[in-house]
Specification:
- By secondary structure, the protein is of the alpha+beta class.
- It has three domains: 43 residues, Arc Repressor Mutant, subunit A (Orthogonal Bundle), CATH 1.10.10.10; 160 residues, Alpha-Beta Plaits; 48 residues, Orthogonal Bundle (Arc Repressor Mutant, subunit A), CATH 1.10.10.
- It is built from ten helices and ten strands.
- The strands form two sheets. It has an eight-stranded antiparallel beta barrel with strand order 2-4-3-10-7-9-8-5, surrounded by four helices. A two-stranded antiparallel ribbon has the order 1-6.
- Helix 2 crosses helix 3 and helix 7 packs across helix 8.
- The longest helix has 13 residues.
- The protein is globular, with a radius of gyration of 20 Å.
Length: 299
């Protein structure tokens, strides 16, 4: 699907606030309300854009995460799909480089993280699993960085979140029917959760739709404090994800770029940093799963 300039402006607005009203969206991009509504519907129905609620990890008690580099015996695709079936694995790709699969795990504590890693090690076809344990998410388009200022009141709040995780632009009237409250009460509860940092509604967009179809993962070994290098790498425009970690590297991240030349230029910028001692990179060849809106629920 090709997007024109107006489509791209709509996408950018929805990436900032997925529940913008059609009136506000129309004013910001210079369209009538019906035209803005039609374009949003076309974008979502095509599958190019999904507008969903991302719930704060603390609400789901997801306090531990890791990045796994996985090698396989034989074909990697079936193994990647087995891993993608795990609710603890929001991100799974088939890659070039030393390892065939890269995956991110987010779990409720380190015991569950360890169990999930051991489960993946035991899957048929898995030869090796090399984990990087995340210590701090420095840059993450899907993570709310500030702690929530409110808590969930009851099961109704949970049902509101679940509905918005499936469709972030669900009208308050329809949401009210699903959770069994009046439209006014539903609106009040939903705004409390969003304004209180429990969740945010955003547009998830395939990178190729934005002309950014080249995804490159990287890990950095650094001299001295990792935080200082992270502060520099975080400022690179094409670095869309960055985490400090423990393991074979001190930093791990993702470059999202418009061309191989842009990927190469960003890697060269990293290599030029005085404290960077080693750069390992890999290309994401197939995005098997990217679903940060469907995190596992706490038991």
């Amino acid at each position: 699907m090709e997007l024109d300039g107006t489509d791209l402006r709509i996408v950018r607005e929805l990436q900032g606030d997925g529940r913008l009203t059609y009136e506000t969206l129309a004013q910001r991009v210079g369209l009538s309300r019906p035209a803005a509504r039609m374009r949003v519907q076309r974008l979502t129905e095509s599958g190019a854009v999904r507008v969903v609620a991302i719930v704060h990890p603390a609400v789901r008690q997801l306090s531990a995460s890791a990045h796994l580099a996985i090698d396989t015996e034989g074909a990697a695709a079936p193994v990647a799909r087995e891993i993608a079936a795990l609710p603890q694995a929001p991100f799974v790709t088939l890659t070039s480089g030393r390892r065939a699969i890269m995956s991110e795990l987010r779990t409720a504590g380190f015991q569950e993280l360890e169990r999930t890693i051991e489960h993946i090690r035991a899957l048929p076809g898995v030869r090796t699993v090399d984990p990087l344990i995340a210590t701090r998410h420095v840059k993450d388009p899907y993570l709310l960085t500030d702690e929530p200022t409110v808590t969930l009141q009851d099961d109704v709040d949970e049902r509101i979140l679940a509905a918005l995780e499936a469709d972030g632009r669900l009208p308050f009237a329809e949401l009210a029917v699903r959770v069994g409250l009046s439209a006014g009460a539903t609106r009040s509860r939903t705004l409390r959760l969003l304004d209180g940092g429990v969740a945010k509604v955003v547009a998830l967009v395939r990178p190729d739709v934005l002309g950014l179809g080249f995804l490159c993962g990287f890990s950095l070994r650094v001299a001295g404090e990792a935080a200082a290098v992270a502060a520099q790498v975080e400022r690179f425009e094409r670095v869309t994800f960055l985490s400090t970690c423990l393991g074979r590297a001190e930093l791990v991240g993702t470059i999202t770029a418009e061309s191989f030349d842009a990927v190469r230029a960003t890697l060269e910028e990293m290599r030029a940093l005085p404290a960077v001692r080693e750069v390992e990179s890999w290309l994401h060849l197939e995005l098997v799963k990217e679903r940060y809106d469907t995190a596992p629920r706490p038991a």
